[in-house]
Model the fold of this input.
Amino acid sequence: GFLSEQISNYVGNSWCGRRVTYSVESSPLGTGGAIRLAMHANELDLALVVNGDTLFDCNLSHLFSNVNGGDWSTKMVLRQIEDCTRYGRVELDSRNRVINFGEKGHTGPGYINAGIYLQRKAPLDSFGTSAFSFENDYLANKLADLMIEATVCEGYFIDMGIPEDLARARHDLQNMKTKPR
Done:
């Protein structure tokens, strides 16, 4: 969509040795519609989806475990924090399946949606080609029809959705030492 050519001109057709393809919306489709469009355009039955305004240093190996097994629709990464007020609280059952997405404003510690998902294409097809929110229309409103498995990760986390946290992320990243991988 908006200024997408700046990304494609900068990144090109490969990044760090990986092929890059683009899915450009002709009109805004919301987060869910954009994911669905990209999966269909690239003929993907399964996709790793990462929010672009979140940084999270976490090990994703649990997210990819048992990918072909189970009846899950979505796997998502959660982060435990001291105060969920800004984010809303995610509640789990004893098998780490999501049973509720609490509203923002809940105070105290808990799990929050970290913005990293492993998503199957089929559950998104019920929306057709319409615009929809992945978080609200799909995850929260269709929760009763979905099987959402959660993985809890630790590590540096910041949601840069407000200017103060964007500035803090810039500062933190400039001061972090590169870790060998």
Q: What stands out?
A: Residues 11 and 95 are 40 Å apart (CA to CA). The first helix runs from residue 4 to 11.
